[in-house]
Amino acid sequence: MIQSSCLLIMKMQWDPISQYLKISRSRLDMKTAKVLSTAALTIVFSTLATLPAMAAEQPVSPKAEQSIQNSLPNVAILATGGTIASKGAGALALTDYGVGAGQKPVGVQQLVDAVPEIQKFANISGEQVFNIGSSKLSTQDWLKLAKRVNELLESPSVDGIVITHGTDTLEETAYFLNLVTKSNKPVVLVASMRPATALSADGPLNLVNAVALAASKAAKDKGVMVVMNDQISPAFGVTKTNSTNVATFKCPDTGYMGYMQNNVPYFVSSPTKKHTVNTEFDISKLDALPRVEVNYVVLGSDGKLVDAMVKNGAKGIINAGVGHANMPNDVNKSLAEAVKQGVVVVAGSRVGSGMITPLNKFTKEGYVTAMMHNPQKARILLMLALTKTQDPKEIQRMFNEY
Ligand code: ASP
């Protein structure tokens, strides 16, 4: 029977190096992995060299083996779960899969083993940080992930990082990391819209592209990136626009930053917003982020939800207004009252693209405006801003710069 699952097809292949590297993938240790993979190559090449009638006197020297391995960059894969790590009941289970459908998630080991092609681009090591749907992640999880990413980026034996993630909140994690990771090395988030078992699963090629991108010198200084469907997106500009389609990630205000063609990145632009090493945010000593809520405005909204947010301890509120951040009078009244109680309010829009500039009608109430941040990204920036200041003018500066 023909299996469409990439996982199953790949399992049938025997790749001595990737099989051997299995033992080094559960916990990241690049140096050890390198030494071990060199040793593995020695065994493999020595075995080949002693085959009958071969010129057995010429085993591959350790130096040559080392240069084979050393010529590749080292990429760490941090797995967090999502559809890319999910299975369904069959090839046609395109939307019903994963834990909710009674299927166990795929671990980082299986994920990496399923796509041996990634080892053409980098020495791979892997780590399971979480294994959950991205809608279940918390801001505590962000802090844990970001601290681990920073730890790895500091290591001279890590050249780039790939984070596998669910698509649902991928843009949020990407933007959070874009503001708090401290390195110019590539950090690439990748996901899939179809589970590993699906017909035309998009995960395997997305993962190859992510590793190739993270291993590429051209990807340095670009901030945190998302690669999906051959498109490279900046963390600032990217957003999920379709709940099922593989071409879901778009950058309505910035456009894509580049494209993967035959696993090679072709950049067409660079981020102009401050990111990574140029931000003022430091999460290294934080164990929680300030509470920031999003109020979604619809025709006829009143201010009751805003009042409840304040009552429940919100330190900041993003108002996802209509159009250019407009809102009903009652919502405005509640937000203005929230400002008086020390809550920072950002006037944003539910529209999903376009800029909200600081018009007098907003600044006179003490509101910051979201500029080009959609509500979910404005929330992240406000959470981080509130770790530094509560001054709306300062926070407005941050919304202009990041
Ligand atoms: N449920 C998934 C998630 O973890 C959706 C996906 O990854 O495409 O976000």
Descriptive account of the structure:
By secondary structure, the chain is of the alpha/beta class. The chain has helices at residues 6-11, 16-25, 30-49, 62-70, 108-113, 139-154, 170-180, 203-214, 304-311, 329-340, 360-363, 375-385, 392-401; strands at 74-79, 123-128, 160-164, 187-190, 224-228, 231-234, 239-240, 249-250, 258-261, 264-267, 292-296, 316-321, 344-349, 368-369. An 8-stranded mixed β-sheet has the order 2-1-3-4-5-6-9-10. A 4-stranded parallel β-sheet has the order 11-12-13-14, with helices on both faces. Helix 11 (360-363) links the parallel strand 13 (344-349) and strand 14 (368-369). The protein is globular, with a radius of gyration of 24 Å. Aspartic acid (ASP) binds at residues 82-83, 133-135, 166-168, 191, 193. The site of aspartic acid has 10 residues, from loops.
